[in-house]
C-alpha cells in the first residue's frame, strides 16, 4: 500500500513541475462523501481556453451496506485526474468537471476499482468548492468538498 501512495504522490509532484500556461497551485481538500468522508491533496494547472487539469489523491472512508454481510466501513486511496472547463470571471470561476479515478482499497482482501465522477464547482480566490456524483463497480454516490490552494 505504501508503494502505491508513494508512486501517486511522485506523479503529482512530477505533474507539478510541468511548464504550463500558469504556475500550478497546490492545495488540501476535505469533504463529505455519501456516506463517509474524504481528505486529500490536489494540484491545479490552468490550461488555455478555460480548461484546467486537477490531479488529486484523496483518502475516502465509505460506509457500505453489503446486504447479508452487514455494514462495512471501507477505506480507499483514490487518485484521480479532473478535467475542468470554466469561465474566468475575475474573482469567480464556475466550472464543470469530469474526473476518472482509481480506487485502491486499504483492505488487502479487496481488489482495485475504477470509476468516473461528473460534477462542477466554483473557484473563489484560494478556495474551491467542488461537488460531483461518482460511479464505480463498488459504489456510487454524491460528494462535496472544499479545497484551499496555496
Give a nutshell description of this structure:
This protein is mostly beta strands. It is built from one helix and eight strands. The protein has an eight-stranded antiparallel beta barrel with strand order 1-2-3-4-5-6-7-8.
Explained architecture:
With 150 residues, this protein is mainly beta. The chain has a single domain (2-149), classed as Porin (Beta Barrel). The chain is 10% helix and 65% strand. The chain has one helix spanning 2-16, and strands at residues 25-33, 36-46, 51-65, 71-86, 92-105, 113-124, 127-136, 140-149. It has an 8-stranded antiparallel β-barrel. Strand 4 and strand 5 form a beta hairpin. The protein is elongated and about 50 Å long.
Annotation keywords:
single chain; mainly beta; Porin; eight-stranded antiparallel barrel; 8 strands; 10% helix; elongated
- Low-confidence runs: none
% residues in beta strands: over 45%
Main sheet makeup: 8 strands, antiparallel, barrel
* Overall spatial form: elongated
What CATH architecture do you see? Answer: Beta Barrel
CATH level 3 topology: Porin
Overall SS class: mainly beta
Number of distinct beta strands? 8
Helix content: 10-25%
What count of domains describes the coordinates?
1
User: Number of DSSP helices?
Assistant: 1
Radius of gyration: 16 Å
Strand order of the largest sheet: 1-2-3-4-5-6-7-8
Elements, N to C (H/E): HEEEEEEEE
Mean pLDDT: 87
* Gap from first CA to last CA: 28 Å
User: Given this structure, which CATH class is correct?
Assistant: Mainly Beta
Amino acid at each position: 500500500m505504501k508503494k502505491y501512495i508513494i508512486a501517486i504522490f511522485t506523479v503529482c509532484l512530477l505533474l507539478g513541475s510541468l511548464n504550463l500556461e500558469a504556475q500550478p497551485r497546490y492545495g488540501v481538500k476535505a469533504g463529505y462523501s455519501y456516506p463517509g468522508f474524504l481528505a486529500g491533496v490536489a494540484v491545479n494547472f490552468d490550461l488555455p481556453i478555460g480548461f484546467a487539469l486537477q490531479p488529486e489523491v484523496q483518502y475516502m472512508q465509505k460506509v457500505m451496506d453489503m446486504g447479508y454481510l452487514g455494514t462495512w466501513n471501507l477505506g480507499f486511496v483514490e487518485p484521480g485526474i479532473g478535467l475542468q472547463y470554466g469561465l474566468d470571471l475575475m474573482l469567480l470561476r464556475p466550472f464543470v468537471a469530469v474526473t476518472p479515478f482509481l480506487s485502491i482499497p486499504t483492505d488487502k482482501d479487496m481488489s482495485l476499482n475504477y470509476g468516473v465522477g461528473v460534477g462542477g464547482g466554483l473557484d473563489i480566490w484560494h478556495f474551491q468548492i467542488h461537488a460531483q456524483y461518482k460511479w464505480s463497480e463498488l459504489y456510487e454516490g454524491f460528494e462535496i468538498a472544499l479545497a484551499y490552494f496555496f
